[in-house]
Amino acid sequence: MPDAEQGREPGVSQQVIDLYDEYTHRPLERRVFLERLAMLAGSAAAALALLPMLENDYAQAAQVAPDDSGLDVGRVDAPGGAGKVQGYLARPRQGKKHPAVIVIHENRGLNAHIEDVARRAAKAGFLALAPDLLSASGGTPKDEDQARDKIGALDKQAAVADLVSLRRWLAAHKHSTGKVGAVGFCWGGGMVNQLAVADPGL
Question: What is the pTM for the complete model shown?
C-alpha cells in the first residue's frame, strides 16, 4: 500500500512475512493464503499489490551468471534408484577433479535459485549436481504451487533411493575426487538427513 502523500512503499509487516512463510513451506492453499493476505493488507487490491514484494525474483537474486566463463554447466540425465533423474551439473573449468556436492531443492522443485546455488558451489571449487527429484513425475513444473503438490505426493523412499544412486554416480564421475557431500534447503534439508541415514558413503 503505497503512502500516497510520501510516494513510498511501506515495509512488509512480520505478520505478512509469517503468512507467506506458512504458504511457502506448509500445505496452505493459494486461495486461503490470498484471503488471509487480504485481511492483513486491508483489501484484495492491497494484497495483490503486496505479492510482487513477497514472491521470488530468481533473476535478480542470482549471484553467479549461467554463462560464467569460469564454469562448465549443463543439463544431465543421471541414474536414479529406478530410472533416470534429470539434473543441473556445474563445475569449475580449471582443474580435473573436484570434491562433489548434491544440492537438494526445496518443496518448489528444481528452479533457477537452486541452479544458482549449484553454480555458487562450482565457483567455490565443487562439482555440483542439483537433481530434479520430480523427474519421475515429469519434472518440476513452472507453477510453484503445482511443484509443491507434486512434492507432497512424492514417494520419499524412492527419492532417497534416487539420492543414494546419485551420490554413487557423482563419486565415480570423471571430474570427481570421489568425495561427495550434500546440502539441502527446507524440504531438501530433511532429504539430506534421510540420505545420510541411508548412505554411509555420503
Answer: 0.77
